[in-house]
Amino acid sequence: MKLYCLSGHPTLPCNVLKFKSTTIMLDCGLDMTSTLNFLPLPLVQSPRLSNLPGWSLKDGSVFLDKELKECSGHVFVDSVPEFCLPETELIDLSTVDVILISNYHCMMALPYITEHTGFTGTVYATEPTVQIGRLLMEELVNFIERVPKAQSASLWKNKDVQRLLPSPLKDAVEVTTWRRCYTMQEVNSALSKIQLVGYSQKIELFGAVQVTPLSSGYALGSSNWIIQSHYEKVSYVSGSSLLTTHPQPMDQASLKNSDVLLLTGLTQIPTANPDGMVGEFCSNLALTVRNGGNVLVPCYPSGVIYDLLECLYQYIDSAGLSSIPFYFISPVANSSLEFSQIFAEWLCHNKQSKVYLPEPPFPHAELIQTNKLKHYPSIHGDFSNDFRQPCVVFTGHPSLRCGDVVHFMELWGKSSLNTVIFTEPDFSYLEALAPYQPLAMKCVYCPIDTRLNFIQVSKLLKEVQPLHVVCPEQYTQPPPAQSHRMDLMIDCQPPAMSYRRAEVLALPFKRRYEKIEIMPEPPPRPTQPTSSKKRKRVSEDVPDCKVLKPLLSGSIPVEQFVQTLEKHGFSDIKVEDTAKGHIVLLQEAETLIQLEEDSTHIICDNDETLRVRLRDLVLKFLQKF
Amino acid sequence: PRCTFWTLVPAADGHQEWDSNSRLARSRGVAFSYLAVGGKDRRTSVLIMDPECSRLLPALCAVLADPRQPVADDTCLEKLLDWFKTVTETESSLQLLQDHPCLVELLSHVLKPQDVSPRVLSFALRLAGAFAAQEDCFQYLQQGDLLLGLFGEAGALGWSAWSIPSVRSGWIQGLCALAHHPSALHFLADSGAVDTVFSLQGDPSLFVASAASQLLVYILALSMQGRDAGSPIPEVAAWPVCAQKIVSHVQESLHSTAAPQVTQALNVLTTTFGRCRSPWMEVLWGQLSPLVASLLKRDPIPAAHSLVDLLLSVARSPVLSSAACGPWEILAQTLHRLSPTQAGPLALGTLKLQRCPQELRTQAFGILLQPLACILKATAQAPGPPGLLDGTAGGSMTVDTLLSSKSACVGLLCQTLAHLEELQTLPQCPSPWPQEPLLDAAVIILRLCDGSADPSSSGAGRLCGTLAGCIRVQRAALDFLGTLSQGMSPQESMLQVFAILLKNLESPESSPTVLKKAFQATLRWLQSSVKTSGCSDLSPDALLFLGELFPVLQKRLCSPCWEVRDSALEFLTHLSQHWGGQADFREELQSSEVPMLACQLLQDPESYVRASAVAATGQLFSRGLQATPTSSENLQAQQGLLMDLMYILSTDSEGFPRRAVLQVFTQWLRDGHADVARDTEWFVTTVLQAVSRDLDWEVRVQGLELVQVFLTQTLGRFRPRCPYAVTLPEATSPTPHPEFLRTLCRLPLFEFVFRALFDCDRPVAQKACDLLLFLRDETAPSSGPQETRDGPNSASVEVALQRWQEGEQGQPLGDLEPEAMLALLRSLDLEGLQGKLAKSSDHIEKSPQSLLQDMLATVGMLEENEADCY
């Protein structure tokens, strides 16, 4: 059993597990911290940003001044922001059979994997994960596409050039593999490969292993996964939480008796307690607003924002803030607020029971109803009419590199009355603020990360008693900034195995038993071996046995088939009934399709592309097995 | 009429006094007759055997003896027993038994235990013990072999009910009661009871086991009685048989390898040495101390807690501590041998001793300081002062090992900090007191807890991991830090302390309880900074600190957690109380938004916070520290606050804010606050109107307090201002100034006070009564015959009062002329009323007659009462 580690980010994991004859990808997180090296994309022309001086080398050469700009001593790439993808070279991703997604934050790299690697498998995820993941992707694509940038910088990526750059650009890893954001089409295509699953549902993979999602308590629909065969059990723990926030509580019991427990997605701020941070958030918000200042909260459109709104709902009256408008600006704001209310079965017990009253599970419905919370797709349009100060604005993107937040930073940054409160733990707030310096606005850092901390992990491990623990290397030593905090690392026996990006781990795991079924008759030998170049899983175990062409079954309803043809641009279609079936005539293309009980023929005159097109349309009506 | 209180509302104990909850009195349906002018309380609550009780007693005994009529309530029996004990204290038990043969019959009946409930058995055993405490009565009961039947081997021990703990407990308590005279001693020796007591020491019921040990102590003391005077005390071998038996049992137990037995022996000795001061104890200790010392050689030391108790008991005993075989050496050994956690209480106890060798004190203090010394060492702070770490290297090692386990470490640290805190406030506090290192230790512990310590060693890293975020230790350390403010500290330490306090106040990780402690410690340190700076102004360091403190306070006042807002407001109140008059402080405070935020919290949804906000703004305003500094706005704002508080007083749904408002108002009135002084009569009238409708009795009491302040002030105005002024005797005579009386009658003051006099809540009525007495003494002290004639209005007022007394509160008092008021004051039996109110609300129901009647009624009408309950 091997583990291929494609991401070095402990909370945005992407690992591939080879277990028995299956290849399973566990999450495909996208490391977006790379965008911090880029200049923000202003929604409204910003003279300050566009007049930043170009950066020149120490020797005075200025060949990079188009690509690199300098702001308050920091150097930024002036280009469309790019993301650091998971490793694609370590393993042939076309051999991946399934991808298991644990939460909506951990699927942001999905389009890169499913659309550009030859991936042909299935993706499994829960419904809220898919829906909210779609919102996150849609928002990201929207943020980037609505500010078209002609320039795409690449000179600086040259290894010889990069060496000369100042930090952090100099130290950025794998810059050549950084990619621009995907398109909405790619997103749709990627999401269409997802099959929805429910908690505790058992999914058989090729009869070899069974995978099961379990509630992880971190976000709506977030899951941990159990991957087990008859004799082995691997648990994959991704972002999980034991706090009572809105999602269903974490299922710990089912993780017991694992041979291997792969542990990722712990809190990124182990020293901050979410309760204290929420308190800090509220106090600072109230103080700013009382002084007549505005509060900006850079955030994702889903997740912690629900809890923050709930907390504010209880707080604003006591703090005398009832008259202060709260704005939530995101292209997906509306959908996010509404989705949260309809996923009742994925919510914690308290919220679920509200549905039967019936009441909306989240109190933000009431905030909207009473006009205390207003949401807009962007700063353009209605928002500019309704905008009233002082106010509180929730908007993305938390990296401060794109989205409406860029505008508010430019607008409010000059006044010390205003405050920006960082609640998302994914980005270093100092780096996020770098291109806005000098900044008069107050900055408050209240990262709210509800994922497991090390105390909870050690309790969890004591409880579930896995034989082996595997985790990112960051978790096996104290954080660099607090090297003395021996309590801020995983402490278990035997010591956890650690991995880092681009590493292949042989898991300490011997398979002792295998269940096989012996049939009385030998299987028929395949007569037509295919010449596929792809390495298929069967070939690993039985080298001399070649892959069968998939068998087809089903019948083709003629009327629907004709409609499909018409939808795909074929006109002038005639259908003739025959004794054995039907003949579909495409007169213009001089092509006929014979549909009979036991065979289907496409007869066309030397037009291979047309034939393949028609074949694919026919195959759509049939089931493969 | 029969009072069924005991049966319907069984009280937890029979001695429940007024519990400040008026509903209790109401629920009991107790009606008072406050205005019983000339009336007489027919029932007395003196607990004696009166004819009525004598009459009821046979019936009650019959009921108790009758197994078909179960006694439903244990508390009745307890009360009955208490009563009998009181009776036997003042009367002859023998006489009592002879006068009431039913009692002996009851005891004899119990000898056939199959018929009696365990409750009654236990009661009878204790009752017999109480009677037999008098020697003549003992003989009387012995004649009929009644005592042997109850307490002997053929008695209770053989009953099947013996398996019930309450019966065993009753047996022991009965024996405890009777062990008061030599005859009893013989009885105990002959009946074999002592052996039973030995075995009961290990009883599964802790109450029984503990009582058994107590009994042994009694018996030992009884058998040694009379051996103290004059002649020297012989060796144990020459002691009475009974005493010898007990001593050898204790010796055996001390030899035992089973820890529980050692514990029992140690407990018996602890009680013995703690109770009496007779010289024979010196002999006993001389005999047993080698055995106790030998316990220290065992590993682990058995019953360490009990050993600590024993040694402290010995050390406290004046007889033993000055004896030749004094406890000091063994104490020193024990301190050395016990683990730090076990040694802590012993060290503290040693240091608290009035007399103790200096060496031992030094050792004990060293032990107490060990954990902190260890922390200082681990975090590579400057090593402690000489003596702190010297000679305890071995000890520190064990502390080190202890610190590796989280729970042990936390427990030990909290214990140590609490002990040191206690010690510092005592006169026995060791000198020199290592103020600086202790301050360093407290600060470093707090820094380890908040993760800001910069550990240079692996040990410190481990400590950091263990203590990070530990609220218990944080609280203990902050308390200790606060106490340390009493000592003299160098300036650097002060800065360090202010820095760590600020960190704790500021950190979002601080829990509300930690924050509260941090606020308390901050106040103490600010006060001490005044002390060190020599004048009443804040030191420059403290001022700098205040500059940073107010933004933090601002943030805390906005906290979503109400506990935090509440403690922040309380802190603000204290701050302005202490330093509200100082220019620097005022400047810092007024340049912040704290006063404005405090004002806003008057509307807080949480009532506690509103109450604290009322107190804080009241304090700020009386110091002129309100949010708006300009003078014209100032006036307006202040008026605004007065109206805001009036609004809270008349509309707030919770009692706390309303009480707080009245406290502020009373204070304002007392201080002659400008707004109040401008139109005091309007102010008092408005307040009383609101208070008279208030449902909260504390508000009404506070309202009476305000009236009292007003009366005193008004009276003062019509009196010569200077008490030392040379004036003619007429001028100082208590004849009231007519204008004073007119003022009183103009306000709704009398109506308020008289209504309060009939208040269903006793404290209100008491306060009103006191107030009227004060007023009467001030206005109409002597009532000559010509003055007792009532004025024209007095009669109608009395009618109104009569109605109020009868519960018809609707009728107003009507206008009152000064003369009528004076006449009324004279006619009321205020002293009598005061006496009646001073008694607890259930004094009538506490009488023995009532108890006996109730018990009879319960049994006789059990079914009816059950129906009543539903």
UniProtKB/TrEMBL annotation, chain B:
<keyword id="KW-0677">Repeat</keyword>
<dbReference type="GO" id="GO:0006915">
    <property type="term" value="P:apoptotic process"/>
</dbReference>
<dbReference type="Pfam" id="PF02985">
    <property type="entry name" value="HEAT"/>
</dbReference>
<protein>
    <submittedName>
        <fullName>BRCA1-associated ATM activator 1</fullName>
    </submittedName>
</protein>
<dbReference type="GO" id="GO:0016477">
    <property type="term" value="P:cell migration"/>
</dbReference>
<dbReference type="GO" id="GO:0006006">
    <property type="term" value="P:glucose metabolic process"/>
</dbReference>
<dbReference type="InterPro" id="IPR016024">
    <property type="entry name" value="ARM-type_fold"/>
</dbReference>
<dbReference type="GO" id="GO:0051646">
    <property type="term" value="P:mitochondrion localization"/>
</dbReference>
<dbReference type="GO" id="GO:0006974">
    <property type="term" value="P:DNA damage response"/>
</dbReference>
<dbReference type="GO" id="GO:0005654">
    <property type="term" value="C:nucleoplasm"/>
</dbReference>
<dbReference type="InterPro" id="IPR038904">
    <property type="entry name" value="BRAT1"/>
</dbReference>
<comment type="similarity">
    <text>Belongs to the BRAT1 family.</text>
</comment>
<dbReference type="GO" id="GO:0005829">
    <property type="term" value="C:cytosol"/>
</dbReference>
<dbReference type="GO" id="GO:0010212">
    <property type="term" value="P:response to ionizing radiation"/>
</dbReference>
<dbReference type="GO" id="GO:0030307">
    <property type="term" value="P:positive regulation of cell growth"/>
</dbReference>
<dbReference type="GO" id="GO:0034504">
    <property type="term" value="P:protein localization to nucleus"/>
</dbReference>
<keyword id="KW-0963">Cytoplasm</keyword>
<dbReference type="GO" id="GO:0160234">
    <property type="term" value="P:integrator complex assembly"/>
</dbReference>
<dbReference type="GO" id="GO:0008428">
    <property type="term" value="F:ribonuclease inhibitor activity"/>
</dbReference>
<dbReference type="GO" id="GO:0008283">
    <property type="term" value="P:cell population proliferation"/>
</dbReference>
<dbReference type="InterPro" id="IPR000357">
    <property type="entry name" value="HEAT"/>
</dbReference>
<dbReference type="InterPro" id="IPR011989">
    <property type="entry name" value="ARM-like"/>
</dbReference>
